[in-house]
Specification:
469 residues; single chain; alpha+beta; two-stranded parallel ribbon
């Protein structure tokens, strides 16, 4: 954390030239002059746009985060990044007995997507995190006895992990109309080493999900929901495209789902993430994730305060969004035309807006700086049927197994710099943008076909455009 903090200071000095004064009134943000001078095409997130393309491009605060707000941001950053241990220290302890990772940052390195052990180790990682989640249930949509919704493949000493996940990839060869050959990596998943009785895999429905980038989370929470509802009403029958809102029940209310691979959450799920991923109890979730299992009978009480949970929520809301790059490149500009020619823009909607009041944290803190902004996430935040080849038979609320949220593309071109890989889609099966497009089926099939029938230069330009976002 210290090394990262020092690097952030250096990067901030080089790219932002912005001196922070902890005594400054946080109601008077000093917006970076680069935001004021930038082209509108560069401003991915309005005043929350940051100008860096380093390995910390997903992990810097927006310029309006100052004073006490910045102090809270740093606390949330530390809680997000620092590994949890098994002590009773409320800042560092509480992990387990079952867990999937030791910190948020273990799976979201630099607030991005840590390369999954699915790719490096063919399943559950040999260390203390795997950088994926496995959801399991019975064929009739019930939890298995002695298990919950997430299979925890790691555990503290003296406790057995709930099971181990395995994957085998088969290369599926294809040829484009122009003769270009390629292959898609097709995964097959299964579970072994169940901590109690073995469960026949015919009695297990499972889906594997790799982490999402935590880019633009504050803007997503501030989205103008009327605009999202209007996008749902737009139908494109000539292309077979008709997205829908995934309505979810969260915090006792029916809400528009915005986050997660199937838009199956309406908030940033910090309390749920701490509990389910690390085994950290909070006032919202006071029972251990292993509650009811015969191997885990101790009650350790509340392990993280509501104030700290709110600071993690604030940290995620206040992260800056990297600016567009290479906007004057002829290839990138031509690629934008190819993006529209392939009808990608019908789902990956370029421009949205945030509501005037901004966003509100889980502790009631309002962030008005997130309000009234023109943003470019390249998503409609609706779920679309992407066909059975990409489906997982695992429905969540009204999103079927074949339906997925349109992935926001902003910041995606920096993933290799931030996280050293270009694995995409919900389980990382696509090794690059090309393969991600070629996995599109269902409502995405029209884009896949147009892209496949382009010449090599046009395809390369479209990919260059996506990587500029």
């Amino acid at each position: 954390m210290l090394r990262k903090f020092i690097l952030m200071i250096v990067v901030g000095t080089l790219f932002l030239s912005c001196e922070r004064d902890s005594s400054k009134d946080v109601t008077k943000p000093d917006i970076n002059h680069k935001v004021k001078m930038a082209s509108p095409r560069e401003l991915s997130a309005g005043v929350s746009t940051i100008f860096t393309a380093t390995s910390y491009a997903y992990d810097q605060n927006a310029d309006w985060v100052t004073g006490k707000l910045y102090d809270r941001f740093l606390n949330g950053d530390a809680l997000y990044d620092d590994p949890r241990d098994t002590s009773t220290n409320p800042k560092t302890g509480g992990r387990g007995p079952l867990f999937c990772g030791t910190s948020c940052g273990s799976c979201h390195n630099n607030s991005g997507r840590t390369k999954s052990s699915l790719i490096t180790d063919a399943g559950t990682g040999p260390g203390d995190f795997s950088s994926f989640l496995t959801f399991i249930r019975t064929p009739n949509d019930q939890y298995h006895r002695n298990y919950g919704r997430v299979l925890h493949d790691h555990a503290i000493y003296g406790v057995k992990p709930e099971g181990k996940v395995h994957v085998k990839y088969t290369e599926e060869p294809h040829t484009l109309p122009d003769g270009t050959k390629y292959s898609l990596r097709v995964p097959k998943y299964w579970i072994t080493d169940f901590y109690m009785e073995d469960i026949d895999m015919s009695q297990v429905e499972m889906t594997v999900r790799t982490p999402l980038r935590h880019v633009g989370m504050g803007q997503i929470m501030a989205l103008d929901l009327d605009e999202i509802k209007a996008l749902e009403k737009k139908q494109y029958p000539e292309y077979g495209i008709s997205g829908e809102i995934n309505w979810v029940n969260e915090r006792g209310k029916r809400r528009v789902g915005l986050t997660g691979h199937k838009a199956h959450h309406s908030d940033l799920t910090v309390e749920l993430g701490f509990l389910s991923d690390m085994g950290i109890t909070s006032h919202r979730y006071p029972l251990e994730i292993s509650y009811g299992q015969p191997q885990c009978t101790e009650d350790h009480g509340i392990e993280i305060s509501s104030e700290d949970m709110a600071d993690v929520d604030l940290y995620l809301h206040c992260l800056g969004v990297p600016s567009r790059r290479n906007i004057n490149s002829e290839m990138v500009q031509y690629g934008a035309k190819m993006f529209r020619k392939a009808k990608c823009h019908l789902c990956h909607v370029e421009t949205l807006h945030t509501r005037p009041e901004g966003a509100t944290l889980i502790d009631g803190t309002n962030l008005p700086w997130l309000g009234g902004q023109t943003i470019h996430p390249y998503s409609d935040f609706l779920v679309h049927d992407m066909g059975p080849k990409l489906g997982d038979d695992f429905s969540q609320y009204n999103a079927s197994g074949d339906e997925w949220r349109t992935a926001p593309l902003w910041g995606g071109g920096l993933q290799k710099i931030v996280n050293t890989h270009t694995d995409y889609l919900h389980d990382g099966r696509a090794r690059n943008v090309f393969e991600a497009i070629m996995w599109h089926g269902g409502e995405g099939d029209v884009s896949r076909q147009i892209f496949a029938n382009m010449n090599a230069n046009d395809r390369q330009a479209l990919i260059a455009f996506v990587n500029s976002l």
